[in-house]
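Re: weekly structure request thread

Next one in the queue (85 aa):
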Amino acid sequence: IKIYGNTDNKTSVISFNLGNIHHYDIGSIIDNEGIAVRTGHHCAQPIMDYYKIPGTIRLSLSFYNTKEEIDSLISAIILAKKMLS
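Done, posted below.
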């Protein structure tokens, strides 16, 4: 998993990719598991073009997310990787 951004200033909004698997495909599987994520350029296409990033999966966490929800997210990411690798 490749997480984008500066770790010194990381917030609860996380953009990532999973190897060379297309971001839309990963996002679709995660969504089918009942977890809301966004995929694409996130209104930042010029900077993504500059860094040659074709798009990312973005998730937003908050204080009200539970450990169980985080575990479900991790399981969905693992499932997506298994299905698409």
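Helices lie at 23-32, 45-50, 67-84. The first strand starts at residue 2 and ends at 4.
Next request, please.
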